[in-house]
Amino acid sequence: MLFSSPLYIFLFLPIVVSIYFWLNARRLVVAGKAWLVISSLFFYGYWDYHYLLLIVVSMLVNYALGNAISSAVAGSVDGRHRPPSKKAMLIFGVLFNLLLLSYFKYFDFFLANINVVFEQNFPMLDLLLPLAISFFTFQQIAYLVDSYRLETREYDFLNYCLFVTFFPQLIAGPIVHHSQMMPQFDSVWNRLLRWRNVAQGSFIFAMGLFKKIVIADSFAVWADQGFDSEQALSFFDAWGASLSYSFQLYYDFSGYCDMAIGAALLFNIRLPINFNSPYKALDIQDFWRRWHITLSNWLRDYLYIPLGGNRGKVSRTYINLFLTFLLGGLWHGAGWTFVVWGALHGMALCVHRLWTRAGFKMAAFPAWLSTFIFANVAWIFFRAESLEDSMRVLKGMAGINGIAFSSSYAEVWNQAVAPAFSVSAEPMLMPVILLYYLSCFATIAFFLPNALQIGGYLPYRGVWAFKRGAIALLFISGVLFYSLVAGIHTTPSTFLYFNF
Amino acid sequence: MPNLMRAKTFSLAYLFGVIAIGGLYYAAVDNLAVVQRTIDYSYRAFLLKASAPVSGKLIIDGGSSSIHGIDSRKIESRFGRLTINLGDNAKYPLAYKIHRLKPYLKASDTVLLTLEWNQYAEGNVFSKEYVDTVFDERGSNSFYYNDLPFLERVWFIFTKVPFLLAVERIKTLNGVDSDKENLDRGESFSLQQFYRRVQGGERGDSKRQAVVDIEAVRARLLSTSCDRYILQETIANDFTVSKGFIQNLKLLQDTEVATGARFIFIWPNVVDSVQNDCYQSPEAIARMPIYGEDIKRVVNAHGFDFLGSYEDSHFDKSCFFDTYYHLLQECWVERTDKLIEQMEVYGLAKSAVSGRDILPQLVSDYLKSLPVNQVQITDLLEQSTSPDNEEFVSGWANPEVWGRWSLGYESHVLITNIDVQAQRLRIKGRYHHGAEPTAVWVNGTNFGEYVLKDRTFDLQGVDIEGGVLELRFRHRNPKSPKELGLSGDTRKIKFGLDNISLLGPKG
Prior knowledge:
The complex is a heterodimer.
Chain A: H1 6-25, H2 29-45, H3 52-78, H4 86-117, H5 133-148, H6 157-165, H7 167-170, H8 178-186, H9 195-227, H10 235-266, H11 284-290, H12 293-304, H13 314-332, H14 336-357, H15 364-383, H16 387-397, H17 407-421, H18 433-447, H19 451-454, H20 470-486
Helix pairs in contact in A: 1-2, 2-6, 3-4, 3-5, 3-6, 4-5, 9-10, 9-20, 10-15, 10-16, 10-18, 12-13, 13-14, 14-15, 15-16
Chain B: H1 7-33, H2 43-50, E1 58-62, H3 64-67, H4 72-79, E2 83-85, H5 94-101, E3 110-114, H6 117-121, H7 128-135, H8 142-146, H9 150-159, H10 163-174, H11 180-199, H12 214-221, H13 226-230, H14 232-236, H15 243-259, E4 262-266, E5 270-271, H16 282-301, E6 305-307, E7 314-315, H17 332-346, H18 355-368, E8 378-381, E9 392-394, E10 404-405, E11 410-415, E12 424-431, E13 438-442, E14 445-450, E15 454-458, E16 469-474, E17 495-503
Parallel strand pairs in B: 1-2, 1-3, 3-4, 4-6, 5-7
Antiparallel strand pairs in B: 8-17, 9-11, 10-17, 11-16, 12-15, 12-17, 13-14, 13-16
Helix pairs in contact in B: 1-10, 5-15
């Protein structure tokens, strides 16, 4: 069930919200939580019920370990018990989660490489990647570490299940902390339907929905056309394809995050901000403070700092930085293209650190432009099926395959200019309308406030701010209606971050 | 916050907003996107409506198997009951066929359902072709929509009709370039054709000459064995009767109760191609007998009868017409005789009505009740779904629902017996990967290069005295969808010909 599907919007979400608050209004708080957990598991199992068992087992093991770690801590405090080795339990827990993730996500990648390097023919497992496994694994690792650090504890399995499975953030984040979520569910204030939150959440949800079904899905057509094309891409086609993907990903992921935040707000839950206009970033560090913020924070808190962070030698800091992003790349997918993408970002962050340490500065415009172009080029590896495909697009962007124009311009060129220069133009693959889309939606991404600012979730007081008036009303109604008919006869397009 | 709606009002108001927009959208599609023809495009739909007042008629319905294998006139002669054949395409939803029949059935009517195998294995499939033809500018299948009950219409529009298709149809049918003229011309054409067909005693059977290049047709089919072709959905559904089919049986029960008509099931015609391979795969040998019985049992359990066994309508390769479901006319006799025998054993009542006598009168009465526009202009080239349309001499792909794609750089059309009084030629088309002009020659005269989306040419100076119109098109830059990374289709296509027509003088 996609956030953008009519089933979710018109059936699942309203039913779950209504029954949740109906139960809470009758002071059936536990039943309300149980209802949310059951609904979330239904939401998860709707894709493939086979993996319900996996998430339930994962929760059971992590809950037991978290409890054991917390008890061990408590035991050590009151002095009545011999403190068990909580560190050993933490290591076991982290290993358990990583092994689970590795088995389902990386085993075939590992085998394929073994087969190539050692000329073997080990059969692949061909496992279907369980939905959201990367997200719930990281979330639970964070929980174990937080328990170890005495930053959180949970003795109620139902609460724990709610923390892991809460459906607005289950599938593709944001990656939340137990300490961020559970106080909100336990707040008496949050147990009543808050119409202000419903209005604000609906507006933010509609903004996200618009980004997904109107903008991202349109860019997807052109991105696929370029990346999946077997022919050599000309200059404009290659740039058209790469920019299309950059904006598809931007609007797809930010749309998803907006919908997650909007849906959670209906339950009076404020999810952490995950996405804050990353294409406005002035450097690559700034970019990672704006793109997938909760993942960046996770990598910083649970990987970079445990690796030593910047506490050791200077060279060690750079290695830690590079390794963090290399592994971050691999987290997104089991493939060399993701490794290269992570490595590129790791290198860029190292260069940025060297640059700032050396005291260099760059004016805002070239800083922004170089950051965006770097991100755009790196996304090519993120999107392409193979390194060869990435190089094919990059060659096109470098103009190695020549320049093509739209068919009508090519005609003018061939009749008026080509005879003089003996250079004829081929019609290009990308339609001219892409230029309008890029101009329009790039301008929005670069210059306008983002959906969370407009929706009042982030501070903003400009003219675009959400007001409960006729325009917002029409906007929400129009977008919700369009979601009803937009997907008919087209293959449902999943959110890109569901794959990670 | 002054001047702002209360949050509760706002939240409820947008819900009403969605309902209001949805209602407006439904009303727009319902009223503006579906062609409302006075005379249906389909001869079979026309026959069904014209013959509605008659009681005791026999209606054959199902996939194309029923119109390519059963001789309705012969059944009519034997039973003395007006018999019409409504079969069209097994990929059209059975539920909608039932809805279409319902308003025109009388208590003593009998419907023979010749369903093909996919209809037992799948629910109601709404293929792109089906939806497109419901909304096309001719109204090819618009009668299916127009005969739906209100809730079914709502469901259809909100679950099966792509938004862009609906908007495009609303724009085309109601825009400045109104298609009213086309529609009138189409209706006039239909009327003339249908008159001739009624006079000729046609009952909807598809009696066509044998395919000329039958070996090419066979060769094309070779990549898919008969069982793979006819049992694809059955195998995918593991030889299980689908829930969708069972739901359709319930709809049939309701229809039977509401109309008093009787529904009887008969098996589809299946014919071997190059070798005798239908029902011969190990899977089919092992499972088809049980599956056939399962279907019968389910059908019987819902109160309907089945005639014969599926092997009764299995023919060898000498009967092959153009697919595994179509029989050569020579084999219709055998199939029809067998069916008649089964119907007699079953006890189907005979009557003394002569369809040949009553149908012209019925049609005449039916037409009198309609406000038909008689227009002078005549459609020349109605696109046919027949792959052997002789007018398309070279450079054309097989027909799509809307027309044909050009193949390669040149395409050639030759139309004979045209109205020599015609003064203008209208060509309507579309383009793949960009509208690049097409060079046009008419009877050897170069007319220049044009984007042929909707172009009318003056025929003054063109020799059409012999009643022959030869059109040559030269296309720029044909490319295959595969080259463009759109699909695996390797055909190099460029221009799509929707329609060619001859017009009278301007005004």
